[in-house]
Design goal:
By secondary structure, the chain is of the alpha/beta class. About 50% of the residues lie in helices and about 15% in strands.
Amino acid sequence: MQNDLLYKIAITLIDGVGDIQAKKLIGACGSAEEVFRAKKAHLLKIDGVGIYTANAVLNQNVFYRAQQEIDYIEKNGIEALFYQDKKYPQRLKQCADSPVMLYFKGNADLNNNRIISLVGTRKATEYGKQFCAELMQQLVPFNPLIVSGMAYGIDICAHKESLKNQMSTVGVMAHGLDMVYPAQHKSTALKMMEQGGLITDFMSGTAPDRENFPKRNRIIAGMCDAVLVVEAGESGGALITADIANSYSRDVFALPGRVGDPYSAGCNKLIKINKAALLESYADLVYLLGWQHEEVKAARQAKLFVDLSDEEQRLVDYLKEKGNTPIDELCYATKLPMSKVSGLLLNLEFNAVVRSLPGKRYQLIE
């Protein structure tokens, strides 16, 4: 088995062979091992393989480094995931340029039924951080895997809030698993390995060089159902991730901000040019992704018939009768002030009884 892994890692080390080419070689030869056993004449018949690549394969000077990596991952409890492995993220596998090898440390289900990625500016404002915190709390009943990139700002906020709400979260690294960058996030990374994990396609000893981050972003975009952009400037990694997600036919959502706000300019632009759906609350996400969950229904029933307050019950009864209802109508019908109704509805949302909809409308969760 170790010998098999040696060839799988070695193929990622061949000079001039990227992920797409490596998969072509494996497909044509039958396995990573057979690539290294192939004759030059056979290699040259493979689409895209020229003299340089064929000679690089035949040179076979990559095994020493591959064995070093095997020694490292075995010593440190790291899993090496080949793109044909069952545990490899299957959503990511659908992408043509998905990595041949991933290195993972943690306990997350990388093929969870629901996976979302959150990205955004490194200079997050209270607006963005508060939205992120509320969103994570509201998504608990759906039990998604939360993916981000371990960076300052929105990334680390998403990871921390996921941990706080006992949701699994995975950080995608732009370097090897022998370090954490930024170093200030090491304590969070350690917690994530117990409640999620860290993943990368870079071998140990790889530094977080600038050119590694776009490669990291393709994993963030590819292994999820949807990418959420929570605050972003007119350029930067978050918009690169959104572009990649669109190219992968992933859903993209963006949190709108004030006109002229530099940290919302990217989000507003994505929405304006129809590259992202408007994200005002978790309800937009749940509705557009078509998420349903029996536990949510069960939670609603429990709250409906066990421990609702009298005022909450009045709101629930009205929504049960009328369906989708604006908040001002709820205030009028229940004769309660707006501030009181807002608080009651928020509590009902947290308890999975109602969901908020665009335009300050509410409905029961069926």
